[in-house]
Design a protein that fits this description.
By secondary structure, this protein is of the alpha/beta class. It contains eight helices and seven strands. Strands 3-2-1-4-5-6-7 form a seven-stranded parallel sheet, sandwiched between helices. The chain is globular and about 60 Å long.
Length: 288
């Protein structure tokens, strides 16, 4: 059984839909009989995605829109095209980039990451939430988070900050929607693990063999749909390398940095690394 927003002939809007998780989402929702709007900046990849879905599902109802999710005019075009086509019941803010930038480095990289990963999501919510609240059917917004926005590992500050912002934004959205009288709109945070996508595996092609450690994009989509059907807000995905118990330990350790007044990011601090490794060994052995 699906979430009530996944409905035959209702419109699903997916950003970053040409490849990876976005493509897997579009393919799956088209199979469910939804009208699917695929939005992507890469025209060639988008055309290929539309052809691939149509070839395996001749009855698929698809619209492709080439655009930059950070462009105000393209955001408006996406909203108008989707709502003119039918009743939108699902918005999935999936697009993201990962331009490396440290805490005091590269303002341009910071700007581009925040524009795509955070500000574009906020802008599309500002378009679609008032529209959805006026409708008399169930609908949902799914924002693509990241474990890096929760445990914030060192190495790419801009990406971690953008995904931490998405987490907080989506939590606030879920609360406000829940408190809005007569609201039939829900919000969900999809949190993938190590997934076989072009972002995580640059240069991959359709012929590239998936590394054993990674989940496929299809597995992530299956987990997302199951989580939504269960009315989960936090939809966590493990992978073939990191289990759910290990994810829990990492998140608990991160939260305990504040509670125990440890140094920031103590999991990577030379004085605490061994303590974390020992905790993992003891706890996971106990869980087994």
């Amino acid at each position: 059984m699906n979430h009530l927003a996944v409905v035959h002939d209702k419109v699903a809007v997916i950003t970053g839909a040409a490849v990876g998780i976005g493509f897997a989402l579009a393919n799956s929702l088209a199979t469910e009989g939804m009208k699917v709007v695929l939005f992507d900046i890469d025209e060639t990849a988008l055309k290929r995605a539309l052809e691939k879905i149509s070839s395996s599902n001749p009855n698929a109802q698809l619209k492709g829109i080439v655009g930059n999710v950070a462009s105000k005019s393209d955001q408006r075009q996406l909203f108008n095209t989707a709502t003119d086509w039918g009743d939108v019941s699902l918005l999935i803010n999936n697009v993201a980039i990962s331009n490396a930038a440290g805490p005091w480095e590269s303002s341009d990289n910071w700007s581009s990451v925040m524009e795509v990963n955070f500000w574009a999501t906020l802008a599309l919510q500002q378009y679609f939430v008032p529209y959805l609240l006026k409708q008399n059917y169930h609908s949902a917004i799914v924002n693509l988070g990241s474990k890096e926005g929760i445990t914030t590992p060192p190495g790419n500050s801009a990406y971690s900050v953008s995904k931490a912002a998405i987490k907080v934004l989506t939590e606030q959205l879920a609360h406000e929607l829940r408190e809005t009288p007569d609201s039939l709109v829900s919000a969900h945070l999809l949190i993938p693990g190590y997934t076989f996508t072009p972002m995580n595996y640059p240069g991959m092609t359709e012929c590239t063999e998936k590394p054993a450690a990674m989940w496929s994009a299809k597995q992530v989509v299956e987990r997302m749909l199951a989580g939504m059907a269960n009315d989960d807000f936090y939809i966590f995905c493990e992978d073939n390398e990191v289990s759910w118990p290990l994810d829990q330990l990492r998140m608990q350790w991160s939260a305990d940095d504040m509670i125990l007044n440890r140094p920031a990011l103590s999991r990577w601090h030379p004085e605490y690394q061994q303590s974390f490794k020992q905790l993992v060994t003891e706890r996971l052995k106990t869980d087994k």
